[in-house]
Amino acid sequence: MAKPTEKSSVDQSPSNQSPPDKILSSRRKFIKTAGIGGAAIATGIGAPYVNAQPKPIKWRLQTYSGAPLGAHVIKPQIDAFNEAANGEMEIELYYADQLVPTAELFRAMQRGTIDAVQSDDATMASPVDISVFGGYFPFNSRFSLDMAAMFKYHGLNEIWEEAYGEVDNVTWLSAGAWDPLHIFSKEPIRSLADMKGKRVFGVPTAGKFLSQYGLIPVTVPWDDVEVALQTGELDGVAWCGFTEAYEVGWADVCNYALTNSITGAWCGSYFANTESWNKVPPHLQALFRSTIDQSHYYRNVWYWAGEARLRVEGGKLELTSLPKEEWEKVTGDAEVFWDKIADTSPRAGRVVQIFKDYSALMQKAGYPYR
């Protein structure tokens, strides 16, 4: 490009100006050549690099779980999404209580303090009439695939979408199954009487159900559970199955495992702040949903393999069980509990009816379903 010379001394009087069409032509030529020159400057030696790519979408997602467990229940999904998003979007993952207390997850997401959440409905105090079914609802399933089947093919998807559709600025995305619920304790539980007075860390609905036998639900931060077991603040946990108990270290500080499973699978979901979700382009929304499905698959296999292997080969916990007649009492009490929950709202009643119909179908199907 030619070096600019001194200001032209051409007469600028009206008589010497070019006709309008020539002025427009000159302007077009200037714009065209200026673009070429600008490109040449931008690509010249020592010129600063200009990134034309838009800034990536940034999300903050918090899970209910601590880091040791989160390494399995969500980190593989977030890592896969961030890699596949190819710089267009990045999700920062936070574990239990790192940004906000778990009990405040829902409100924080609704306000936009965080963009997304992985949790069960009950633990994060969702303000919907079906929140009681999140986490562990007694005897609503026998296996983890029961939850997936009921959501996809028996109507629970539609009910969850309906319920959260009535809540401002929160979008429910997907539900999946985790592990069965067992009680791990420092002292043995061989009868219902042995439960009396034992302080256990657990999820709300299961804790409420088990409290009728004298168990005392206690809430502490997730990362404090192991220390609380060591100091005697807790006598046990009613939070998980064998896989988690071994993975997070609770099997190291408990001595006994009750083999009677209160339910077959924990039910947890993914949620997003609606404003944040709507800012994500459709192809990245589809990618996020796809990696959620990947997470569901990963967990089903990880838990299923771990439950059997660690019960047989774990070696850290002595196995106990309730007498047959007492266990029959517990299952009968669950039916009463179901009916009480069904009466709390018409929508809750619809969920309970799905549980009943599905259970009856599995019983009729027989082996290997029941």
Give a nutshell description of this structure.
45% of the residues lie in helices and 15% in strands.
Largest sheet properties? 6 strands, mixed
Estimate the mean pLDDT confidence: 89
Strand content: 5-15%
Secondary structure tally: strands: 11
**Sheet with the most strands: spatial strand order:** 7-6-8-5-9-11
The secondary-structure element order is HEHHEHEHHEEEHEHEHHEEHHEHH
Helical content (DSSP H or I, runs of 4+)? 40-55%
How far the N terminus sits from the C terminus, by CA atoms, comes to 82 Å
Which outline best applies?
globular
Unreliable stretches covering 5 or more consecutive residues: 1-45
Q: Can you tag this structure with a few keywords?
A:
alpha/beta, 370 residues, six-stranded mixed β-sheet, disordered N terminus
Any overview of this molecule?
The protein has 370 residues and is an alpha/beta fold. The chain is built from 14 helices and 11 strands. The protein has helices at 20-42, 67-73, 75-84, 105-111, 144-153, 156-164, 204-210, 225-231, 242-247, 250-253, 274-278, 282-313, 324-342, 346-365; strands at 57-63, 89-94, 116-119, 170-177, 182-185, 199-202, 216-218, 236-240, 256-258, 267-273, 318-320. Helix 13 (324-342) packs antiparallel against helix 14. It is globular and about 65 Å long.
Q: Can you lay out the helices and strands and say which pair or pack?
A:
Layout: H1 20-42, E1 57-63, H2 67-73, H3 75-84, E2 89-94, H4 105-111, E3 116-119, H5 144-153, H6 156-164, E4 170-177, E5 182-185, E6 199-202, H7 204-210, E7 216-218, H8 225-231, E8 236-240, H9 242-247, H10 250-253, E9 256-258, E10 267-273, H11 274-278, H12 282-313, E11 318-320, H13 324-342, H14 346-365
Parallel strand pairs: 1-2, 1-3, 6-7, 6-8, 9-11
Antiparallel strand pairs: 3-10, 4-10, 5-8, 5-9
Helix pairs in contact: 3-12, 13-14
